[in-house]
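DM from R.C. (forwarded with permission)

"hey, sorry to bug you on a friday — could you get me a structure for this? deadline for the figure draft is monday and I only need the backbone to look sensible"
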Amino acid sequence: MDLLRELEFKKRIITPDTVGKIKVKMSVCLLIMYKKDSGKTIADAIKETPFKDKMILDADKLRIEANLFKGLFKEYTDGVTGCVRELLQKPEVKCVDTFLMVGGFSESPMIQGAIKDAFPNAKIIITADAGLAVLKEAVVFGREPMKIASRIAKYTYGINISPPFDKTIHPQEKRVDVGWKGKM
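My reply, with the result:
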């Protein structure tokens, strides 16, 4: 659990511009358990991997080169941007140009950067406490399930509710004036 919390924290602070080494605190219990179960230390195990030159275990801190750590995000950022691209091909969302990012992963500068790079013309909105937004709505839904009836807006607003009246094609009884001052 400590390692998961540590990684959760790191994912929120690493940026596409991060350089150097990323320090990840390792639980002493984890180090002891690994040695007990495998018969070798994590430091020795790292030396047997293709990443031996990119990470080092120093006491209870794993130091990982920033590029390797950032590479952990690639599969996920590619997946998210690919999914959004696929969704934007659907006619009902083709004209969407604003993204609202919620959820813990939305707090990661890596996913934010990937979305901004993939959709440079889109307006990106990242809510304060994006990780809590999903939790808060889950609580609302749990307490009052009927409060969230649809994920698609039931109503929208616009600036034009009907075409201008044309007496050559529209019946007079269907005419409605809504502040229109143009020629008819």
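R.C.: lifesaver. The chain has a mean pLDDT of 84.
me: no worries. The chain has two domains: 2-68, 73-147.
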